[in-house]
Amino acid sequence: MIKVAVCGAFGKMGQEVCHAVEASQDMELAAKIDIAGDVYKTIDEAYKNTPFDVVIDFTQPKAIYENAKYCLNNKIKIVIGTTGLKDDEIKTLKELSEQNKTGCLIAPNFSTGAVLMMMFSQMAAKYFDNAEIIELHHNQKKDAPSGTAIKTALMMSEAKATFKKGNCPETETIEGARGGTSYSDIQIHSVRMPGYIASQEVIFGSSGQIFKIRHDSMDRKCYMDGVLLAVRHVAAENDFIYGLENIL
After folding, report:
1. What letters, b where the CB count within 10 A reaches 16 and e where it falls short, cover 147-160?
2. Most buried residue, 37, 96, 222, 234, by CB count within 10 Å?
3. Do 94 and 130 sit in the same domain of this protein?
């Protein structure tokens, strides 16, 4: 039985994760951790009172880096669903995971469909010289662009150095109108609107054609199979993984 602690247990994703863990036949919900409510306030407090095997973190961008460092420095395995980590922070977590021989899995998205969208975009990137990404989330999401969009751009960037081939010089009459520039000059546009949960569209273009790959999440339950898959992997292994596509 895998003993699991959920950090951010009272958030919308955290609540779904708690339900999924409780319904799983090979896992036990050992601790709920959240700054709100009558539960453990920190990972340290929870671990001293109720030892567990894996932490699942769905908190906030400002908290995740310190949470992850604490876990890895104390040889507590962790599955990270919180987005907002910077490249240098991910690099440090990878080093800590390897140094302490402690499993760590970071996934910008746990939906199978979203992961396939990212993988298909990586495949398509070899055949198109121009591409942009539009990501759409609810208006309570605090980081922009989304971790999924950043990871998608990173995967696409492995195909070529720029996706702005043939673009004319541009002048923004309103700052930010062209979105943010990411890996290999891929523009990412972030929409925040009530009604959305999480959607992403990757647009590829070439002379005479447009190719689009889109994924829409309608319910947070769509992430749970991926979360449980990640927990099982981390519980069994001591490696560092960035992206659910690496264990599908």
Report:
1. bbbbbbbbbbbebe
2. 234
3. no
- Sheet with 77-80, strands from edge to edge, namely 27-33, 2-7, 54-57, 77-80, 104-106, 240-242
Q: pLDDT tens, 34-87?
A: 998 899 999 999 999 999 999 999 999 999 999 999 999 999 999 999 998 999
Task: Name the token pair of 54.
Answer: 């894996």
Domain CATH for 82: 3.40.50.720
Query: How many structural domains does the chain have?
Result: 2
Token reading at 55: 């932490």
Selection from 65, 62, 73 nearest residue 100 by Cα? 73
Cβ neighbors of 88 (< 8 A, separation 6 or more) are: none
Task: For 74-95, give the DSSP string.
Answer: TT-EEEE------HHHHHHHHH
Shared domain check, 101 and 12 = yes
The CATH number assigned to the domain holding 117 equals 3.30.360.10
Beta partners for residue 242, in sequence order = 106
One domain for residues 119 and 96: no
Give residue 189's domain range.
Answer: 112-217
DSSP state of 241: E
Name the residues annotated as catalytic.
137, 141
> What pLDDT score does 215 carry?
98
Angle between helices 61-73 and 87-99 (to 10 degrees): 20
Q: Is the peptide bond before 169 cis (omega within 30 degrees of 0)?
A: no
How many residues are there in the chain?
248
